[in-house]
Amino acid sequence: MKALDTFDDIIVGAGSAGIPLAARLSADPTRRVALIEAGPDYPTPAETPGDLLDGNQMSLVEHDWKFTAGIRPDRTTRYYQGKVAGGASAVGNTIALRALPGDFDEWAALGNTEWSWSKVLPHFMALENDLDFGGEFHGHDGPIPIRRWRPEELTPAQAMFFEGCLAAGIPLIDDHNHPSATGVGAAPSNRRDVRGRVSTASAYLPPIRSRENLTIIADTSVSRLLVDGEGVRGVEVLSGSGTQELRARRVILAAGAIGSPAIMLRSGIGPKDDLRRLGIDVVRDLPGVGAGLHDQTRTAVFLVPKPGAENFGAAMGQVVVRTAAPSTGRENDMYYALVNHFDLATQFPHMREAAGAGRVFSVLVVAREPSSRGSVTLASTDPRVAPRIDLNFLATERDQQLLVDGVRVGWELSQSSKLRDLAERVVVLNNSLIDDDEAVRDYVRTTVDPAYNPVGTTRMGAADDPLAVVDQRCAVHGVDGLYVSDASIMPTMVRANIGLTTIMIGERVAELLRDV
Ligand SMILES: Cc1cc2nc3c(=O)[nH]c(=O)nc-3n(C[C@H](O)[C@H](O)[C@H](O)COP(=O)(O)OP(=O)(O)OC[C@H]3O[C@@H](n4cnc5c(N)ncnc54)[C@H](O)[C@@H]3O)c2cc1C
């Protein structure tokens, strides 16, 4: 590691939010910025492994934290989180959907007025180069290219799903990232072409790697914060060469909704009783650290393809539906998508036996705003031990109903004659089971899985909100020199996959901190 150990800003985590933040802050040549990443950093496409280049598969094995999460009291699941420069954006499914204006106006109504739709829209525009749409809502100068699937690029299953949705009366959407979009249309995707994934690492870093005031420190994990009587003064890191201290005027955690609270807890910032139980000295009693973990619930109608009807090399999702749940009527709080292939070795592994097949295609069903909340807590003070993640899914009747109704909608969408004709069989579900309330509830309980959109574990809010961890400028309440900028600050869930919103957070926090 370089001897350069004093910085203006240390950013912990080169992920979806950390990289844009580092890029914007280091644009000021007088500011010395360090970007620390636990996983590897691949500077050029030639050095980047195939699993990260290929946008048609998620990278769930090679660049992953290997976390496990409790779903329900009787069931755990693998909980994927990218461990590489680019974070989740480097391993994910390339669905690049914006959240709704109303999501941000809710954040503002909770006292976070710096995050209203009118304040965040310029950052959504600044991060993108929309290859299909312009006008008052889209940008063309940003690092992340966004394109939508053309009709001729859809697999037969996707085209049939699309047709079936239109026949079912779902409105056609050209641009799912228009603020009022609701209906069915081609998914916007963070790609330049049909195959390659564009991550924050591959989009933002190439033009700025040569900046002398930016130091990227990869393969190095932050174990805890250095805190003195005045506040946070730097970080302790673990790398192949052992433990080291790096000092800074300001530390910004961008380690994600699992990583950021874990670092704070190990540093004595969190619920005091939990910290004392682990023998950690309390620096600041903040009950919201790790509390309020919120992810979206998902299940699916799984179909085993007929021989010859597989689309295993194609993109996972191409056509998506955003609509209201029957029980809420709330704009876009449900999401359906035709997934060309799930590898049951890594996704929904509990369905493998029932499927009697290694891979399936599916109508995916996602509830965007379940009410159940979970938590991230420490299992040990040892930074090498994974935190305890409890998703606490389906804890309310409301959440069960969202997926019960969702499975029935997914079933209907899977039964258009052409799509159904591609399948040898549907896994578990059939015409009589789908009408049986208790059987569908049972199906939901046994199949529910996370959508890998965790937020809310260091949530933003005013100092008088007992569970708020950061203020609306993302400064940690009562801890000088410490900020958070990643998905964990979201005060409420958004009605979209969270990737684009998290990149926007990196951009927005850079602006809020530029003159601080
Ligand atoms: C498999 C998968 C697929 C997804 N697909 C999509 C999709 O298609 N569309 C979409 O919108 N969203 C998707 N998401 C969700 C979404 O992209 C992310 O959850 C979100 O972008 C999180 O951003 P973040 O910056 O908070 O965290 P991350 O992007 O996860 O970044 C955190 C970074 O911090 C690093 N880090 C953590 N702890 C430490 C430490 N102690 N020291 C140093 N570094 C550390 C991590 O290695 C990581 O690189 C997906 C998520 C996953 C896991």
What can you see in these coordinates?
By secondary structure, the chain is an alpha/beta fold. The protein contains 14 helices and 24 strands. It has helices at residues 18-25, 50-53, 88-91, 101-109, 117-127, 156-167, 200-204, 256-266, 272-277, 352-355, 397-414, 417-420, 437-447, 499-513; strands spanning 6-12, 33-36, 67-72, 75-79, 128-130, 144-148, 183-186, 188-189, 214-217, 221-228, 231-239, 242-253, 269-270, 284-285, 291-293, 297-305, 317-323, 334-343, 359-367, 374-377, 388-390, 423-426, 449-450, 482-484. Strands 1, 2, 9, 10, 11, 12 and 24 form a 7-stranded mixed sheet that branches. Strands 7, 16, 17, 18, 19, 22 and 23 form a 7-stranded antiparallel sheet that branches. Strand 13 (269-270), helix 9 and strand 14 (284-285) form a beta-alpha-beta unit. Helix 11 (397-414) crosses helix 13. The longest helix is centred in the C-terminal third of the chain and has 18 residues, at 397-414. The chain is globular and about 65 Å long. The model has no long low-confidence stretch (mean pLDDT 96). The structure holds flavin-adenine dinucleotide. Flavin-adenine dinucleotide is lined by residues 12-18, 36-39, 58, 60, 80-83, 87-89, 91-95, 221-222, 254-257, 259, 263, 452-453, 486-487, 497-500, 502. This is GMC family oxidoreductase N-terminal domain-containing protein. It comes from Actinacidiphila acididurans.
